[in-house]
Amino acid sequence: MSPIGEGWQAAALIIVAAALPTEIWRWLGLAIGWRINPRSEILLFVRAAATGIIAAFVAHAIFFPTGVLAKTPIALRIAALAGGLMAFTAFRGHVLIGVGAGVAVLLAGQVLFAG
Amino acid sequence: MTDRRGMPADRVDISPVWFVKGAAGSLSLGLVVLSLSFVGFGAFARDAGFPLWQVVFMSVSIWALPSALVFVAALAGGASVVAAGIAVALSAVRLLPMTIAVMPLFGTTDRIRRVWLVIAVHYVAVTAYVEGFLKLPKVPEEHRLAYFIGMGTGLMVIATGFGAVGYLISGYLPVSIGPGLVILSPLYFLLSMLKAATTLSEKFALAAGLIFGPIAHSFTSEFDLLIGGGAAGIAGYLAERWRRERTL
């Protein structure tokens, strides 16, 4: 049984209690972004804030993970992030190589620590 | 930029060719990471008791995985629909700066029908934001909106499809999806943002966010991303100002 019931009532609940509370921020962003000069100071700050929020999410996932990642040692998670960064830098900003290296460090560490 | 309103009334639709190019452009590392996250969401929503059509409907109508996860988790935990809605709204505030920041990337939209802008912002979520910053600067200005909408559509169709797959195979998934898969998205977001960051303010905010996020988490677990990330944004902005004043 779905926690929000069945049929059109469920669809309406998803719209009202999940889709609209999310979409409202996009509409607000559209209304504000429309009026902002692309070269303005405020946009410089807004872009930095959006970037900072993503960085905070990354740190959250590494330092306070949930689920299976929480079972790995924190030193290993940090090493994976550092390894990814180093490979990314060494290969002049190749995202795929950086991500692959980070995952490889995590998996290698798991094998080492488990053995 | 208020003079945009005075532009010709006979506005046009987006270019189908660039929509298709954008859809093709959605096939990216970001899509792989997003799809894997959606597999997890599909399985999670099934465990919480949601039928498949509701999982698909949530994916498409919300189109922000953290919001969808908060909604499902709140209801599965016995919260009221009102409480779940408030939790969703709080977690989605981060889309506000993202939407504002992505709009100048759309380039010249004066001649395009307004409805396409409303459609475009629906696709704003972390993956589209990151991929947009990487790809849109290479697209001719007048076609960026079409490209972004095509890219968003591609991301949505494929990731939602993987959400459905996650739902259907949830019983057969190994008890633990490997930690290697879970670390994909933080790695991808960090490195892509590092690649997309062009100004000192963004680079500084990226580094500061890694430090301020966990600090903010130590006194609030609900607003840590907003407070830590916002403080990092202020720090980045101040760093840019400082550099400018020194070079003047």
Automatic annotation (TrEMBL), chain A:
Q: Which domain of life is it from?
A: Bacteria
Q: Which Pfam families match?
A: AzlD
Q: Which InterPro entries match?
A: Brnchd-chn_aa_trnsp_AzlD
Signal sequence region: none
| UniProt keyword annotations, A-Z | Membrane, Transmembrane, Transmembrane helix
Record protein name field: Branched-chain amino acid transport
List the transmembrane segments: 12-32, 44-63, 69-88, 95-113
What is the species of this protein?
Answer: Candidatus Raskinella chloraquaticus
> Is NADP one of the keywords?
no
Automatic annotation (TrEMBL), chain B:
Lineage, please? Bacteria, Pseudomonadati, Pseudomonadota, Alphaproteobacteria, Hyphomicrobiales
Q: Which Pfam families match?
A: AzlC
Q: Write out the entry's keywords from A to Z.
A: Membrane, Transmembrane, Transmembrane helix
What's the protein here called? AzlC family protein
Superkingdom of source: Bacteria
Q: Which residues cross the membrane?
A: 20-45, 51-74, 81-103, 115-134, 146-165, 171-191
